[in-house]
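Entry 12.
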Amino acid sequence: MMFSAFEDDGPMWSGEGPRLVRQAIRFPATFRRAPVVQVSISMWDVDGAGNQRADISSENIDAEGFDLVFRTWGDTRVARIRADWMAIGEVMHPDDFQV
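Predicted 3D structure (tokens):
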């Protein structure tokens, strides 16, 4: 779950205009270099009375992790978002030679 804003009337649920939530993600293993990261919304709970505006992206990608960023704007009211991600790249292995 990236966030749940409706229980405490958080800004994604009660606010208007540009809003964002940023969540730091750390990879379970370190990559040799920054991997390719794909993110997607796997569940959203959005008020149906207004427009449904959403943008999800990955930022600040490096070998150890990235920032998962969800944005909305206008009068969109977002109660909850669950996001999934996948990182593709070469990981280090304990048996690799270090030159």
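Annotation: The chain has a mean pLDDT of 94. Residues 11-14 form the longest helix (4 residues).
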